Amino acid sequence: MKRIQLRNVYVQSSAAVVGPNEKQGPLHGNFDKEYDDFYCEEKTFEKAEQRLLKDAYQYLVNKSNYEISEGDIAVGGDLVNQLTSSHYFAKTLPCTFLGVYAACATSSLAIGMASLLVDRDMVSHALAFTSSHTAVAERQFRFPNEYGIQKKETTTTTVTGAGMILLGNHKTKIKVSEFIPGRIVDWNHKDANDMGLAMAPAAFDTLDTYLKQTNQTLEDFDLIITGDLSSVGLSFFKELLQTEGHTHMERISDCGLRIYDIDQQDVFCGGSGCACSMCVSIADLFKRIEDGQYRRVMVLATGALLSPVAVQQKNSIPCIAHGIVYERSE
User: Fold this and answer.
1) CA–CA separation, 75 vs 99, rounded Å?
2) Sequence-ordered list of residues with C-beta below 8 angstroms from that of 132, at least 6 positions apart, any chain
3) Cα within 13 Å of Cα(302), Cβ side
4) Which one of 12, 19, 109, 212 has the fewest CB atoms closer than 10 angstroms to its CB?
């Protein structure tokens, strides 16, 4: 594993648009737009996810006063077959598009790839984005919600939302300082209704390897936040870290537990999905970095690289975790 240090990449602007579950969560009011229903004023859930992306882009443009041009690049992905949501959104942009996939770790992969292109002066601006929708994801990977099939307590709830980050070399308060690509970890877990537990070893592998290679500890960060391990996976993740001698577990958190209140909302053990870590980063972490509450944060997005066919054929679930380090610049 090789971390990629970035010299001159900053968050120029960002925007996040979400659905009703997220509107009812702890971060209510921090998002740029919050829909009251899962259709988001569209006729299908798939079109609703595309609407979330279009809305997020419009808010980003309005906030930054910058519109993507032909010389820029967009990097993004989602959970729908063949990156359908991303492709239908990206076709409205005038610039080159790179579609990427790492399941729920797609957010960090998109941000990392976009940052690398800016850092190497290949483009002046890069747009990183991702999206997910609870009804679309459930229909594709498990069963449609409207079937009413009973779910296990270890189930996570896919975040309905879209997030976008505009990256460039103009100095702002939020610097993207490192991209930490992960490797695939498969510990023969086969339960598609327990994604947090499946992904925890991949998150551990990326973080433990990084800390050992750089001679750092958890104390070197104000926060290390996983993408969507939620309550079950986060507990396992912490146990793995403690087994290797890591301390200060209070520095560890999870986006799936920040976007929902699992004690008050019917979301099982927390949030998941491509949009989970992206929307939490934009609506929560960026604000805390700008305010000076956090000075160095790692977002460790986690992804389960399964498919419906693989699960039906009783295959194991390979997983991956990609990290992005944000630092506050003065």
Assistant:
1) 6
2) 49, 78, 79, 104, 158, 159, 160, 161, 273, 274, 275, 276
3) 33
4) 212
Q: How far apart are CA 34 and CA 7, in angstroms?
A: 35
Residue from 102, 108, 109, 68 nearest 83 by CA: 102
As a whole number of angstroms, the distance between CA 234 and CA 226 comes to 8
CA dist., res. 225 & res. 300, Å (int): 6
Predicted local distance difference test score (pLDDT) of residue 144: 60
pLDDT at 84: 95
Neighbouring-strand partners of residue 18: 34, 161
> What's the predicted TM-score (pTM) here?
0.95
pLDDT for the residue 283? 98
Question: What are the two backbone dihedrals, phi and then psi, of residue 57, each rounded to the nearest 5 degrees?
Answer: -65, -40
With beta carbons less than 8 A apart as the criterion, state whether 37 and 20 touch. yes
| Digit-coded pLDDT (tens) for 38-93 | 999 999 999 999 999 999 999 999 999 999 999 999 999 999 989 999 999 999 99
Residues of the chain falling short of pLDDT 50: none
Beta strand 252-254 with 223-226: parallel, antiparallel or unpaired?
A: parallel
The pLDDT of residue 277 is 96
Cβ atoms 168, 293 nearer than 8 A? no
Burial (Cβ within 10 Å: 0-12, 13-18, ≥19) of residue 273: buried
CA angle, 114 as apex, 4 and 285 as ends, to 5°? 80
Residues 208/244, Cβ–Cβ less than 8 Å: yes
**The pLDDT of residue 153:** 65
